Amino acid sequence: MSRPELLAALPELPRDAEGPVFREPWEAQAFAMAVALHERGAFTWTEWAAALAVEIKAAQAEGDPDTGETYYRHWLAALEKLVAAKALASDAELQRRRDQWDRAARTTPHGQPIELGNDPSHPGR
């Protein structure tokens, strides 16, 4: 499936005339990770679309107003669950990485890009 076909398969994806629109850098990164894993054969696009649909429907059932502002949160949740289900990373690895990013976000000065290296417990620091 080509990238235009992949994008066409996700009609709810926030976009403008140029293509996908991202409000935050992490949204673009989550998008890129899903596309890269698909291109590497980790999952089919049908599997991906189904996983994303499950996340969106669950969020709507819990009261998500579905204004588009939470779309990439659902994208990331679907990606994490699919990665775990396919044993591409364990739940513990995913949680460790979430914790590292959370610490980095809390220790990064306001207005600066959040980088994993900003986590004081990260080995590269």
From TrEMBL:
Residues 96-105 have a biased composition (Basic and acidic residues). Pfam families: NHase_beta_N. InterPro entries: CN_hydtase_beta-like_N, CN_hydtase_beta_C, Elect_transpt_acc-like_dom_sf, Nitrile_Hydratase_acc_put. Residues 96-125 are annotated as: Disordered. Transmembrane segments: none annotated. Residues 17-104 form the Nitrile hydratase beta subunit-like N-terminal domain. NCBIfam families: nitrile_acc. This is Nitrile hydratase accessory protein. It comes from Dongia sedimenti.
